[in-house]
Design a protein that fits this description.
Layout: H1 2-30, H2 34-59, H3 63-88
Length: about 90
């Protein structure tokens, strides 16, 4: 009974995260301003990270958690560098 509940909830969470990724990718491609596109990119990498975590919970393998950690780190660095580029026009001073 417990395994059925976990499998069902993980499957529902994966579907919802895929829908959220589709919505954020639309925001990223069709945003009216550059700031909107960066926010869409942030939402996309957070949703991808959470999708990998749900895959890891569903399968029980730790490689998905490590990949989610790498996506989180790279996503944060890209967000900071894009924000700095929009504010100052250059990334490296």
């Amino acid at each position: 009974m417990s395994a059925i509940i976990i499998f069902t909830s993980v499957s529902i969470a994966q579907v919802i995260l895929m829908i959220a990724m589709a919505i954020s990718s639309v925001r990223m491609f069709y945003g009216p301003r550059a700031q909107d596109r960066i926010i869409g990119l942030d939402a996309l990498y957070v949703n991808a990270m959470l999708l990998l975590v749900t895959f890891g919970i569903g399968t029980g393998r730790t490689v998905y958690f490590e990949a989610a950690l790498v996506i989180g780190l790279l996503g944060f660095v890209s967000s900071v560098s894009l924000a700095k580029f929009l504010m100052r026009g250059e990334v490296i001073e």
